[in-house]
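Case study B.
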Amino acid sequence: MRRTTRLMLVLAMITALVPLAAGSASAERVFIRADQAAELVGAPGVRFVDCRRDDAQYAKAHVPGAVFMNVNKALRTTGAWEVPGVRRDLEELEELFGRDLGIGNNTTVLLYDDEGYDATRLFWELKYVGHDKVALIFGGWPEWTAQNLPVDNKTVGVEPRNFVGTIQPDLLATASYIVQNLGNPNVILVDCRPPAQYKGDAKAPMAKVGGRIPTAVNAFTLANWEDKTYLKDPNELGDMYADMGITKDKEVICYCNTGYYASNTFFILKALDYPNVRVYDYSWAEWSGKAFLPKIEGTAK
Amino acid sequence: MAPLEPHIKVLVAKDFLDTDHGEIDCEECHGGDPKGKDMAAAHKGMTADPTFPDADKACADCHEEEAALAKTSLHYTLATYRPMVHKRASGETKKLALLDKGMDNHCFSCHASCGQCHVSRPESAMGGLIDGHKFNAKPDQTNQCTACHGSRVGNEFTGATGQGDVHYTRHDMDCMECHPASELHGDGKTDHKNRYDVEGSPRCGDCHEPDPKVEQHAVHGDKISCYVCHSQPYANCYACHVGLDSKGLAYYKNPVEEEHLMIGLNPNQDPDRPEKWILVRRVPVVPTSFEFYGKDLLTNFNQANNWKYASPHNIQKITSQNRECNNCHGNKDLFLTEDKVKPEMQKANAPVIVPEDQIPGKQESQGEDEEKAPKKRSYF
Amino acid sequence: MRWKLTFLMALLAVTVGTAAVQASQCVSCHTDAEQLKTITKTLPSPVASAETAGKG
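Model:
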């Protein structure tokens, strides 16, 4: 393809990923089709991030030019009160994104994984520090290989960039924020964990007790994906969430045990054009350990 | 389900001793020598689970009726396994003997005795006391029911896969709400055709009247099993292979698992299950399942269908099937058509396979429906 | 007479005591968590085959 045509195509695609105008109601695209993303391999201003868990798999084959990040290990740390799996400080994230991943404020970031919920965590964290131009490849790594799109195993040289993060407080919920809004009919809490944990019959290792936050409704996030990386039909998901009272006129706060599944639901709701979604990052790992916070407890100890 | 710590498995709670069962001397049920000088001597002649293989021995003195019934229950005897496997088996005596040995090592190791529902974890889930030896009239869903019925029913019910079953997730019902002792202790029969053939087996209609306000109920009548519209896709596990490893321990290898929903024709319509359309599930057995024990043991494999009546425990009120007529009507993917069944199995599954001309056709949308139809969203 | 009585009482006490001690061997061991912990440490744990794979 001629260089100018290619450049035009790249620009067109990058533009398609961001909100068209400030304050416009048009939807942010959070997905990009695999074949469309393939056109952007090697394009300037685009960074692919491979969020699979096994770096040996990455070494074997990856999208050409993609940088590897084990999101679970690299992005998460232990926060206050020994709560595990929380986001790192802004300073750390700026260096992680800028120097290690080579992302600048204008870089279009395209993510993929194979487990179905690692890339969505990176998605939330990038949004949280004010980076808008990020999207997931629909179907992730399985779709890329299913379509026989180009891969290679070359080491990727990362050119460090300056990444300036701006915290977006509207995308985060803290325990106090939730407590303040527990009776608020315009706010809805979504527990993104498996039903057995929501009922309190099962308990994740980092939780002190089994149970949930009062008033929360349950929508296990991984049930919304087919074969892990294929988000289900948006009409169905939209109806499903609406049936539960998770509607676009409300502010939706997602939580789980450590904010990982919650970020996954954040992504899904964004894909469905929900305007107000927050992630309670510290989640049940924090909430369950604090005796003064109200809980509905189950049998798991 | 986390493993039990070794000492917890045998730890008797002190307050158990104050209960009716606790006042009985240990050796009366368990045998052994209470005066033994050390563990080995004390355990000589002791049975860990005195309620198997004879429920009467330990329990009948006080629980005569229950013990007599429970002894014939399918949990206790697994009586329907052998006739089913033998139906597919080679008739040769030697081969049948090898097959029976295999079944003893694997299929029949899964029995549940009185103790394994009321006191401890089942043996096939590595056993162990779950409540200090206390006898619980109601079994424990996590430590007993789903300890064995875990990866299909348990996961589907609790929502470890899919969205779970509303009976559990929204109405706090556990297994025993629908499967009480009156069903699980058996009906005294010993010639059940299959596990649905037990008296007291629950039906949706036991508690539910189809909502008259829902048009689809009137339209479909009792032609369709409730599961067809109200279940979610479920696990179909097949190609199971069993054998003994180098340490002589039984292994179970199930390499093929597919999650889908498949509608088939009911091969056994009867007053209890009169519907024409049902959900079917692929069963784990293949001709080489018992290959470890001998070659060509299941030469009559094609004598029985291997897509069977399914009652997935993942009920939701609103599902992809019932959101829109044409999600089922005209949707060949959802029906067990001939192309989905291996050629050599088509004859055996004939009563279940849906001929293409019998698949309900696409519904024409009415004028008013088009106005009401919501805008179709897309991610792209 | 007094000595005979004392002797008989002592004998009775010893017999009952021994019987009591001996009859509760099962209970005394199986209600003692610490002792069971020590003993089970030395026993091989029952294992399932490592070759089992896939959904059951």
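Chains A and C do not touch (no CB pair under 8 Å). The remaining cases will be described in the next quarterly update.
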